[in-house]
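Quick one, T. Sequence first:
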Amino acid sequence: MKQRLERDVIAMRAARELKDGDCANLGFGLPTLCALYVPEGVRFQTEAGLLGYGRLVMADEADKADWHYIDASGRFTSPAAGMAVFDVVTSFIMIRSGRLISIMGGFQVSEKGDLANWNTGGDALGGTIGGAMDLAVGAKKVIITMDHTTKDGGFRIVKTCSYPLTAKEAANLVITDLAVIEVTSQGLLLQEVAPGWTAEEVQALTEPRLIIAPDLKEVEL
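Structure tokens:
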């Protein structure tokens, strides 16, 4: 069986989309790993009311954990010079302002960029809505990080989402354990593939037709 990208590698690739001066919100789960690979000059924002927080507190640093500083996954973060602390109302004003880049998880993304990444928490998928709708429609760019297929090999990148939608035509870029795909007005543009994988193999695991970029390459970190 061919190797897929590890979760940390997906997070590293997503972090490459950020540049000096960006403010980014990291969603629950895999996206929070991006905080381990902070590009210089990028500030992270969390719904709990932090902007510009520092690195994550590791398991062997329990003495540094402070309940005032947590991210979307409830992981402890560290304070940093210039960090702002504010209430949740102010946080969501920021989220809806069109100034943030949102890196989110996903259950499904459609060929038009429709996003489904929540449910009622009543099945094995887990996860509830939280601030996902606000983040999906309020950000200036939405990056989705997720596995390319379900555990039983089913499509996650689909023609039409079968799960309840978080937002319509919200996703701009999808980074999976197999590929980097841009959502364009012409369709889904396959830009990068995991090492050892071909465009044809990725297409076989993707329901909608992919447009193959002329400069298609392996995922770069």
